[in-house]
Amino acid sequence: MPTQDQMKQALQAYIDGFAAGDAAAVAALFADDAVVEDPVGNPPISGRAAIEEFYTNAVGAGSKLVLEAPIRGSHGNAAAMAFTVEVPEMGLRIRVIDVMTFNEDGKIVAMRAHWGPDDVEQS
Amino acid sequence: MPTQDQMKQALQAYIDGFAAGDAAAVAALFADDAVVEDPVGNPPISGRAAIEEFYTNAVGAGSKLVLEAPIRGSHGNAAAMAFTVEVPEMGLRIRVIDVMTFNEDGKIVAMRAHWGPDDVEQS
Q: What ipTM was reported for this prediction?
């Protein structure tokens, strides 16, 4: 099982990847067979190629993530964080809580992004 | 599917139940066959009777929940929130992210609390 530090560092690296505009660095945090559900309730995206395309679009829109509270670990293989996404290209701010689940190698196997229609506002 | 408002009001009622010291009110938010995993990675607690006992202990310890950011919904049947738990009886503060999943009746069927050993500090 990955350590608390490994999981929290991966979530911080996810934020840092957006800050650097580096979609490949974000996608590299995921396992080959990972699943991304963003937002929860929409059809999931499966596999590294589709995930890299998803993050290429997200990073390409200039999205930046701002933590609202310290990253949380767990007593298992999951970690979570509350943040806002600033999407300047669309003039939007989205309030999100991501939960990421990890494999033995410390790669993300599942990402679930909790945000609803009411969690989006004009920035 | 419950509305965004229903789910967010249930999470707020969960916080309010702790504030009022009312474990029965907290447990009443859950479906009869609900499962609570607190923290994620520990064996889950199943069923309303066990859940009410769990919250009787938590509320009895004087625990209070302080939101760190607005409650999030989703595009599905889940909502999430980041908060700190103050446990005066134990002199502890715990940083948590809860994810709750709902049934058609707006009752919580699953609660997963994300906090690790490093998310606990002396208060």
A: 0.96
